[in-house]
Specification:
Structural class of chain A: alpha/beta
Shape of chain B: globular
Number of helices of chain A: 25
Shape of chain A: globular
Strand order of the largest sheet of chain B: 2-1-3-4
Number of helices of chain B: 5
Oligomer: heterodimer
Distance between the termini of chain B: 18 Å
Distance between the termini of chain A: 67 Å
Bound molecules: FE2/S2 (inorganic) cluster
Strand content of chain B: 15-25%
Helix content of chain A: 25-40%
CATH architecture of chain B: 3-Layer(aba) Sandwich
CATH class of chain B: Alpha Beta
Radius of gyration of chain A: 30 Å
CATH topology of chain B: Rossmann fold
Strand order of the largest sheet of chain A: 5-2-1-13-24
Structural class of chain B: alpha/beta
Chain lengths: ~1000, ~140
């Protein structure tokens, strides 16, 4: 029987899991309790720290799920029973009625305008209403509304029925009944997520009583262009724009009173993001954030936080209470812990940055499947470190925020990893279906222009309607329209319908960057029977509305120019066809730490040959300088076990003391020159996984030197591991060589490993005197428990400021530190002073970056294809990154990424071929004068003399389409498909045709 | 009315187009005079395109690519450097002036650099005034 899987929950984690499964040819049932897929991310305005428009990056994802034939989406569905069976599980599903026939509905929304009954949606009260028949959010998928049975007049009283009367398609069906259906699957992936905490039990903040106290999720909906106020931030009490706004962090997190001792990990950052967005909407507004520690521990987060300081006031202190004041204003009483003053301050709006808490169904599902939950009510994976997605049941996995607060990046990694683990046999990876692309249709150009508002991202800064009218007048344009989100299901549907109705044979989409959205729109063209290369995009957002947002008229004018340029090129577009490239069934994994070893093992399990390349003489990376983990795992033992597995595998060759010296080739066929102790070895491989980890920062950059008693974190760890530690007084200094001028980023894992050092020390020597000097304790997620545990066991925490770095007197063995909380200088004696260093990119990373020509972010760690949605892919096809070379991280996160990267690589290699973009050179034999200049210029040796010796010819498999040859050809004989001389010249001409002034 | 230069930029698809996208996501403001044409690699930029741009009425042309050593097609941008030197001489010969052409390297993470370079170049051309060959055409 074919393998099947149920994925429960269709947020980002569930959707990613479903897509990864489908890529492997597994039939997926994606079960979602609400009426649409998308989850929390679909309801966000922007994502941090890049301020990407959330729905814009999610829409293509949702559509990919929707159009995948291997995925069945079951909305309004709950699991009410589960029983083990021979193949896996027999589930019982309850499907609640939508009251709208999904096959008949066209999503025209006529019903919604006729429905008399207004209701409010979660997180949108009291700002706006929808109708009883509605979408949960504008870009919902399936794009079919549903009727809220509890509020529908027809369903409760038998009156009304307007929607049915006005529906042309007869799609309303009040007779639909709840159905109970069985479903048997071989595995279950639980991705039920978390939900924002509703702070009703934090009485002191008055949520629910004071109109102008709202949650961050409510603000997120206000900020969203498709939210209840169409992107306007207003007060519930009077509809006025607030001018003085306070954000309060950690509401419901790090709070034992409400039983939630954990840190919710994402709130510090979403708080800063929302604060910045409020500022962006109204530059005159004053914004204050009250915080305990700012936990900006993730890639780009610290930089984001530092930049925010320019426009936002940060106050350290947890407000004690909020009182309503005249005219619904709010009085906050707080102690500023930096100045020890108790202050009362008035604000006109307060936003509570609330925790993430488990979803209601978590408990029920845990009982149904007999899997564990932790003391906070989240699912608990069976083994924390080495497999953070397994449960105690063989074929049940837990991914994403249902395990505890997680950001989008980690959710995506976990989901891909879980799928890789479930279906790891090579046989599971279905032969990729070869699709033949449609050809040309119609001779004369008939162009449709689709202009996107991108919510407010374009619409606010450009007169989109005017652009549409302008586009209509351009030559060969037969149709033009605008839409709120062209990338949404509705927007795409409109493109497809119009292609058919207007017999379009070319499409111009004026929206965002082709780098992110070209594929999405190309799919729409294919579905409507057009060749995907008949699409031209005008990047009116990244190149116009966002960068000229204070010049409405000029931006509108430029948008018209950009559209005109695209139309000019579109008129000359020609169909192109994909090329298939063979993929060598061998992967190179570079780096032999935990990440590299885990990737190699996973790839071998998937049936591929693996070469593991390690520059040191031993596998295991930093295992020997890492202390015992909280769950009892001893890193050295784990590394040894993994190394043994590697040795046992027939499919893995390990190269120690070896380094990559040269790289040639492209996805499918890379050739690496590896220097080994036995000379240069040539490794031919289809894909590459890079796992080069991190190095530690130099203590000197913080002005320290080491000695017998002033030791690095690694020295400390190995001393603990060898039981060599003597002495009673210990001082730990955090952020050494981190968050300073040289390395302005936060290395994320060092707070965590420092806390672990303290924990191990206190376990060993319960009466040691421990002082931790810190700037912010970034104990995100469940690490907060460790923070609390060591504090309770007596570790003393002192906050220092980077302007006054603690001073170490090596001879006297004392540290002098200015305590910012008590405003006093303290002198602390030590036997050992441990310098907890930040991370820097490893030597391997720096070297490989050059060899592969990969991008790095400002901190020097590898740049991923997309920080949120493609954290393991890189801009280079066939090259994947995992672990700390992407950004410093702990063992468990690194192993998750390792498994996920292996999953991505397996999919790229599965099926044996890879389809490359069809941009290549071709030669006009009649024009060619056989001068061979192109042959000399081509970096890929893709040109050769024809057999008869009178003209050149292109070796298409070797050609990468860079076009360098064409630029040199003296007789204009070379054409680069997709970027022909004529096409680009027309585009260039068009710039100067309109009125650019 | 004050002179608003027309500026054309050729970007390679990888690093420099990424930089322009990033300038967008980071909301970095720069003058709206620039129009962008994308190629796969800066090595594709045929001198003809540059000359054509000036003939059609551009006041300045900007070429951007990946940093040296980072070109996604091994060494396309080395060829760009050579061509740039040649083009500058040629522009002087034609009387257009080599200062109306510029070459910049931007990595995909350098949105800031991209917006700065566009701003600087626009200001430079604004000071130089309209391209000397523009009158011929109109
Ligand atoms: S790809 Fe950017 S310069 Fe060649």
């Amino acid at each position: 029987m074919n393998k099947t899987a149920a994925v429960v929950g269709a947020g980002i984690s569930g959707m990613q899991a479903a897509l990864s499964l489908a890529e492997r040819g597994v039939k997926v049932y994606l079960i979602e309790k609400t009426s649409s897929i998308g989850g929390i991310m679909a309801r966000l305005d922007k994502t941090m720290p890049t301020l990407d428009c959330s729905i814009c990056i999610l829409s293509p994802f949702m559509l990919a799920v929707d159009r995948n034939p291997m995925i069945d989406i079951l909305t309004l569905t709950d699991i009410i029973g589960a029983e083990k069976s021979d193949i896996g599980y027999k589930l019982t599903l309850r499907k609640r009625p939508r009251y709208v026939d999904m096959d008949k509905c066209t999503g025209c929304r006529d019903c919604m305008s006729k429905c008399p009954k207004k209701i409010t949606l979660e997180h949108e009260e009291p700002f706006g209403t929808v109708k009883a028949i509605h979408f949960d959010f504008d870009q919902a998928i399936p794009a079919v509304p549903y009727i809220d049975a509890e509020n529908c007049l027809m369903l409760i009283k038998g009156t009304c029925g307007n929607c049915a009367k006005f529906c042309d398609k007869d799609a309303i069906d009040f007779e639909q009944k709840e159905e109970i259906v069985p479903l048997e699957v071989s595995s279950v992936i639980l991705a039920t997520g978390a939900r924002p905490y509703i702070p009703l039990d934090r009485m002191e903040y008055g949520y629910g009583r004071y109109k102008n106290v709202i949650t961050a999720m409510e603000l997120e909906r206000l900020l969203s262009a498709s939210g209840p106020t169409e992107g306007n931030v207003v007060r519930a009490s009077d509809g006025k724009e607030p001018k003085n706004i306070a954000f309060i962090n950690c509401v419901g997190s790090r709070d034992l009173k409400t039983g939630r001792g954990y840190c919710s990990k994402v709130c510090c950052m979403y708080g800063i993001k929302e604060a910045l967005l409020v500022k962006d909407h109204d530059p005159g507004a004053n914004v204050t954030i009250f915080y305990i520690d700012i936990r900006a521990s993730g890639k780009g987060y610290e930089e984001f936080f530092q930049n925010a300081k320019d426009s936002i006031r940060f106050v350290r202190g947890r407000p004690g209470e909020i009182l309503e004041h005249e005219g619904n204003d709010l009085l906050i009483r707080y102690e500023n812990t930096e100045t020890q003053e108790v202050i009362e301050e008035c604000f006109d709006m307060v936003v509570l940055n609330t925790a993430l808490v488990p979803c209601e169904e978590t408990q029920q599902l845990s009982e149904m499947f007999d899997i564990s939950v932790n003391n906070y009510g989240f699912f608990m994976p069976s083994k924390d470190i080495s497999c953070p997605i397994d449960t105690k049941q063989d074929n049940v996995f837990v991914v994403g925020a249902c395990q505890g607060p997680n950001d989008i990046t980690d959710c995506v990694s976990q989901s891909i990893g879980a799928v890789s683990k479930t279906f790891s046999m090579k046989g599971d990876i279905k032969q990729k279906e070869k699709r033949s692309l449609p050809g040309a249709s119609g001779k004369d150009p008939r162009i449709g222009v689709f202009v996107c508002h991108c919510g407010k991202n374009i619409g606010k800064y450009v007169d989109v309607k005017d652009v549409v009218e302008y586009a209509k007048k351009l030559p060969d344009v037969v149709y033009a329209e605008d839409s709120l989100f062209t990338c949404s299901d509705q927007g795409q549907k409109s493109i497809k319908d119009t292609i058919k109705k207007e017999k379009l044979n070319r499409v111009v989409v004026a929206a965002c960057s082709p780098k992110t959205h070209e594929n999405t729109f190309q799919e729409a063209l294919i579905e409507a029977g057009l060749n995907p290369y008949m699409l031209e995009m005008a990047n009116i957002r990244n190149q116009c509305s966002w960068v000229h947002s204070k010049q409405y008229d000029l931006a509108t004018q430029k948008t018209k120019d950009l559209v005109r340029m695209s139309v000019a090129k579109a008129r000359l577009l020609e169909p192109l066809y994909q090329r298939e490239v063979d993929v060598v069934q061998h992967v190179a994994v570079i780096g032999g730490g935990f990440t590299g070893m885990a990737s190699a093992l996973e790839m071998a399990k998937n049936g591929f040959r693996v070469s593991l390349i390690e520059r040191e003489s031993k596998l295991g990376g930093k295992a020997s300088v890492t202390n015992k983990q909280k769950d009892g795992t001893i890193p050295e033992e784990l590394a040894e076990m993994m190394a043994n597995h590697l040795e046992e595998s027939n499919n893995i060759s390990v190269f120690l003391s070896s380094e990559v010296e040269n790289v040639e080739g492209f996805v499918g066929d890379f050739i690496l020159d590896v220097s080994t102790p036995n000379g240069i070895e040539k490794i031919e491989c289809g894909t590459v996984i890079i796992a080069t980890g991190f190095d530690s920062a130099d203590v000197k950059s913080s002005g320290y030197t080491t000695s017998e008693s002033v030791i690095t974190d690694e020295k400390f760890s190995s001393m603990v591991n060898c039981g060599m530690l003597d002495g009673k007084n210990y001082v730990f200094i955090l952020c050494v060589g981190a968050r300073n001028e040289q390395n302005p980023y936060c290395s994320k894992f060092c707070c965590i490993s420092s806390l672990n050092h303290v924990r191990c020390l206190l376990e060993d020597k319960p009466d040691a005197n421990v002082t931790v000097l810190y700037r912010d304790i970034r104990a995100y997620g469940y690490h907060e428990d460790t923070y609390r545990e060591v504090s309770e066991k007596g570790a003393n925490f002192i906050r220092y400021s980077p302007e006054m770095m603690p001073h170490i007197d090596i001879d006297k063995k004392v540290v002098e530190v200015y305590d910012t909380t008590s405003s006093k200088t303290r002198t602390i004696e030590f036997d050992y002073c441990v310098l907890e260093r930040g991370a820097i990119p490893s030597k391997g990373t720096t070297k490989l970056r050059k060899l592969f020509k990969m991008s790095v972010v400002s901190s020097g760690f590898f740049a991923e294809a997309h920080l949120k949605l493609a954290p393991l892919d890189t801009a280079l096809d066939g090259v994947f990154i995992a672990g700390s070379c992407q950004y410093p991280k702990g063992i468990s996160e690194a192993i998750t990424q390792a498994v996920s990267a292996a999953g991505r690589a397996s999919i790229a290699m599965g099926g044996g071929t890879y389809s490359a973009i069809p941009i290549t050179a071709s030669i006009d034999e009649n024009k060619c004068i056989a001068c061979k200049l192109c042959m000399d210029m081509c970096p890929y040796k893709a040109l050769q003399m024809s057999e008869n010796g009178i003209h050149m010819e292109v070796i298409t498999v070797s050609c990468k389409g860079c076009g360098t040859c064409a630029a040199f050809c003296p007789s204009n004989a070379i054409t680069i498909s997709g970027f022909t001389y004529k096409q680009e010249k027309e585009k260039l001409k068009a710039i100067f045709e309109g009125s650019m002034e | 009315m004050s002179f608003e230069p027309k500026i054309l930029a050729f970007l390679c698809n990888w690093c420099s187009y990424g930089a322009a996208d990033m300038a967008g996501t980071s909301r970095l403001q720069y003058p709206s005079n620039i129009r962008i044409i994308r190629f796969m690699c800066s090595g594709r930029i045929d001198p003809n395109f540059v000359i054509e741009a000036f003939l059609r009425g551009a006041d300045g042309v900007m070429i951007t690519g990946c940093h040296i050593g980072d070109c996604h097609y091994i060494d396309g941008n080395y060829k760009t450097v050579h061509r740039y030197e040649f083009l500058k001489e040629y522009l002087d010969t034609l009387g257009i002036g080599s200062e109306r052409l510029t070459l910049e390297w931007c990595s995909a993470a350098e949105g800031m650099k991209f917006s700065q370079k566009v701003t600087e170049f626009t200001e430079r051309i604004r000071k130089l005034g309209p391209s000397p060959i523009k009158g011929d055409e109109q």
